Amino acid sequence: xxxxxxxxxxxxxxxxxxxxxxxxxxxxxxxxxxxxxxxxxxxxxxxxxxxxxxxxxxxxxxxxxxxxxxxxxxxxxxxxxxxxxxxxxxxxxxxxxxxxxxxxxxxxxxxxxxxxxxxxxxxxxxxxxxxxxxxxxxxxxxxxxxxxxxxxxxxxxxxxxxxxxxxxxxxxxxxxxxxxxxxxxxxxxxxxxxxxxxxxxxxxxxxxxxxxxxxxxxxxxxxxxxxxxxxxxxxxxxxxxxxxxxxxxxxxxxxxxxxxxxxxxxxxxxxxxxxxxxxxxxxxxxxxxxxxxxxxxxxxxxxxxxxxxxxxxxxxxxxxxxxxxxxxxxxxxxxxxxxxxxxxxxxxxxxxxxxxxxxxxxxxxxxxxxxxxxxxxxxxxxxxxxxxxxxxxxxxxxxxxxxxxxxxxxxxxxxxxxxxxxxxxxxxxxxxxxxxxxxxxxxxxxxxxxxxxxxxxxxxxxxxxxxxxxxxxxxxxxxxxxxxxxxxxxxxxxxxxxxxxxxxxxxxxxxxxxxxxxxxxxxxxxxxxxxxxxxxxxxxxxxxxxxxxxxxxxxxxxxxxxxxxxxxxxxxxxxxxxxxxxxxxxxxxxxxxxxxxxxxxxxxxxxxxxxxxxxxxxxxxxxxxxxxxxxxxxxxxxxxxxxxxxxxxxxxxxxxxxxxxxxxxxxxxxxxxxxxxxxxxxxxxxxxxx
Length: 690
What we know:
31% of the residues lie in helices and 27% in strands. By secondary structure, the chain is of the alpha+beta class. The chain folds into five domains: 2-71 and 215-256, ATPase, nucleotide binding domain (Nucleotidyltransferase, domain 5, 2-Layer Sandwich); 76-206, Rossmann fold, CATH 3.40.50; 338-425, no CATH class; 494-601, no CATH class; 621-686, no CATH class. Strands 13, 14, 15, 20, 23, 24, 31, 34 and 35 form a nine-stranded mixed β-sheet that branches. It starts with a strand and ends with a strand.
């Protein structure tokens, strides 16, 4: 069986072909204005390398940051919001708090829907789903002219308490589609059927904002693949770490927002499980962003919500809230293409702006003039000009030196090498600071973790980041440069459904709960069963809290059909989960359930050692030396240079050294050594305590 995995990033598009117990990989520059062109270029390359015909491919897996980029860059559809009369400004009011109490200049993220396109209609439901005020259909008809006059192409419909009764939302959608068949419509009761008005409306607006873009892209890509001869299932990676059908992805594209990074987290989790590493941190650094994810007991931290585009020092509350199943990770603007400059206080500043793939860093020779992290790495001798991106492009070191001199070295009166090191040091410290902040936010520590590094730029910076986080062991898996795409190959087919159904445990009624669970099961089964023929596993959770608390916790529900006799089981499960998170329970306090979730999934796939062999290269580098900047000696030093393909199990490489492969480079600093494991991983260990 041949499987094809495709990951579109902000700078590079990665393609992996899994077949004949070998992974064939390609990394090509992303084409932002025509993303499927880069995909097809990469597909042609890996098929040629693997001598595989399109008709022999049995499954195509895909993840992309296109939805994320559209939200961050505000390049989505002209979107309107239809909501209940009197609730027009929910998106602007947000949580009615300050995420940074003592900074009087903070700004919140600007809502995706401007105020003049936030439209209201008279209607009202209560929290039980009972109609308090019927829908005014004449008011709905009046909205059509406003939508037309403002060239709106996508509408989000989010009414108060529609999670309890969606009849009014569905009627509005029916009326709009009857007059405007091409209009894209998103219902908040479908994309986020949960309590919490602000998050529900924010999620619905985000889905509506990216839906036309993603639907057009996925439709076009599917058609192009069919024209190329692919006649197989096409599944999409979701932000929750599972695979879903293309039809479901086009309906709820907001679930794809973190799909690429989620693939990397699944790869890191698989590695942690295979190596029995209970505490790990995945580090994924590409051309545009860096992603940090904590992995405990072989699983990434999962969440029901996250924020896109945190604009204030990675601070929670400064981004757009999205309420969907997601692997909890922190993403910051720190990649190989992150632009370096000097601010008004004569400090080096790196990111979040990126040179992307067009024009890219100065060294790409594509008319980019601004200094980037990749330019700094090249000047410091950390990159091979000839082997970059599998030899697809030759880097221009002179252009990098010129850009760094102009942007950083001359303004600060530094040498080119020291300025380049300064750029690298700043971006490494940005990532370390973000990792510490992320761990503290979740009540976790960085102590005794293993760093798993992948992505085109991560192995270059992994050792420096590990030192800052006091981590002693780093794992760089085979194919690290395209790690997220490889992660798609180990992800299960999975889909999660959520429903809010409030209930006190002391007044627990199993009838409504079992009814909701049956509805959720049927919805998830239709999606999962259509994408896999494997055995389907079921996971149920209740989101519970003590009465009076503001936030709930996820509690396992190990019961298929709940009866009143199971009430003690639910309470015990809550107390076990609460004690694990907070260290204690609160005796005598009433417990309530806010929402229920049900997840159906197939078993995770696996890649054995024979399935992740380093790709063959007919032009292996001999063991040579290169000059690489040593920050301790503040000068260039002779360093060993060896290709990863030439290393064998048990080989040890002492720093300073470079280990190059087709899609990335591993930097082994002076105080580290690298060893090839039995699984062909390269394991870096610190020698500072030797």
